[in-house]
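Go through this chain for my students:
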Amino acid sequence: MNETEGSFITRYGAFADRCATWGARLAGVALVAICVLVMTEIIARNVFGTSTMIADEMCGYLNVAVVFLGLAYTMQQGGFIRVELLYHNFAGRMKRFADALSVLLSFSYICIVLYYMAKYMLFSYQNNIRSAELTQTPLFIPQAVLVLGACLLAIYLLKYILSRFRDVP
């Protein structure tokens, strides 16, 4: 590996780490928003005898945001589940092969899912598809969060591909 290639991989790795961190921060904001909405709904019902009428729908969207925006950070922190019973028995080349296969399959899968999610998001936008709830939320907005989260994970998985599967958690 030459110096330019090594420098690019280092810079890309730092970029992927920043993307994962920002995804986690946005997921944290969404989690706080869920708490605020739930508390507001509880207070509205118990103190004022009314409802916000939107808490359930918005909390659903925010919950999906927490999950998808946190995917890259979960990968970064080694939080994805794998079959440890088998993986711990691997050593040397077999472990690197398992890491490479896992990352390549995950990257391929997330790219396919990302393609179809983006396609569906554009369809929702072009056809002005809205939720059936009171808010009539344009559905491309929460779908865009799914696409963003999948993009962040793809960026992070590409980091491992470019670094030749070193340090896969």
